[in-house]
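User: Predict structure, ligand flavin-adenine dinucleotide.
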Amino acid sequence: MYPSEHIIIMGAGPVGLTLAHQAALQGVNVTVLESEAQVSRQLRASTFHPPTLDLLAPSGITQVLIDKGRITPSWQIRLHEGGEHVTFDLSVLRDDTGHPYRLQCEQLVLSEELERRLLTLPQVTMLRGVTVESVGQVLNRAWVTLAGSGERLECDYLVGCDGAHSIVRKAIGASFEGSVYPDINLLVTTPFDFDGLLPDLAGVNYIWQDSGNYSLLHLPNLWRISLHPTSGQPLEAEAQPKRIQRRLQELFPDAGPFDLAEIRPYRVHKRLASRWRLNRLLIAGDAAHLNNPKGGMGMNGGIHDAFCLADLLVQRLNGAPDAVLDGYERQRLPVVRDDIIGQADKNHSRMQLQGLEQRRQSLAELQALADDPQRAYDYLRRTSMLEGLAKAKALA
Ligand SMILES: Cc1cc2nc3c(=O)[nH]c(=O)nc-3n(C[C@H](O)[C@H](O)[C@H](O)COP(=O)(O)OP(=O)(O)OC[C@H]3O[C@@H](n4cnc5c(N)ncnc54)[C@H](O)[C@@H]3O)c2cc1C
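Assistant: Predicted complex:
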């Protein structure tokens, strides 16, 4: 359909693959360049929010995720000691979304399904094991050079979905202002069944505890625990299996030992690129923004970028004026700043409250919110990312 027009997408993470799929389904010739030989098997994002499922539904991908994931109709905030908790029921969103729940499913399921489909599309070239060394643009073309061979590829538009260390972002001349959260994050998975241990658990639980908050997310065959130790030890020391085993035994003295399937220590940034486009170079996903994972919005936000950008690129390649692409940053940047980075920051701060009295007070306020139908609805629309997408639409 576009014999000469062509976009290159750098990076085959969930965002690059979603963008490639959406653009290719609308007839665009796409080349995807990815340095890794295969889809990353690292456990990263595992939460899909309602509007992301709505966006992915028409192509049938949502059904694949549902088949391989676990539907979570509610989530909760609770005190470890005593077990008092507030539960938020996502079914109140049923008039706003076809998927009024969170879906817990590893991001690699999405990536594998997208890549499987892309490989069947004639307008897509998927090159793995290829690292882009440099990028740029001249007149009406963008270009990349490949490490090793030095080969140069040209395209109409180059989209950097190349993650947090994006070289496309640098070529755009964007700053990446922000900061690193001081706390350590340890992501641990275990087949241990927490349902039998803590009464009335939901599928997603954020839990206050004096010597380090934690969260428990129920994936299809595993529980995913995020630990935030406060001992002041370095990340590597905290990530030792013996130490994690000890921490879990402290939390759950009557259980264990725990079978630890995976341990991933990491630090979290909040950062926003100052601009998302320079003529024929654009960025999306982690290349453009990073946020605290509390609330599970990073990958979802990147997928929303990809849907927005795919539509605008298709319009542009169909003859719309160049200015149509300005709509991308106009729609997405304020929403990412306020509704993703800002909301994730609030989610994180709430969990930092110290002292049982303050936490009980906060829990009582949250219970009042959950009991008020209008306030609960507004809050869940916002934290489920429906509000942000509606705002982006209004900015179109
Ligand atoms: C531990 C952890 C837990 C998380 N949990 C959640 C969650 O629950 N919910 C949520 O929404 N988000 C979560 N996130 C965030 C989420 O994983 C990211 O937002 C998401 O992976 C971003 O996707 P992306 O495609 O933009 O970037 P990436 O997934 O980082 O993909 C970038 C790709 O670009 C490739 N690349 C980079 N440079 C080059 C180059 N020069 N040449 C060729 N290829 C290149 C890389 O190899 C990589 O495959 C989590 C992240 C972490 C680390």
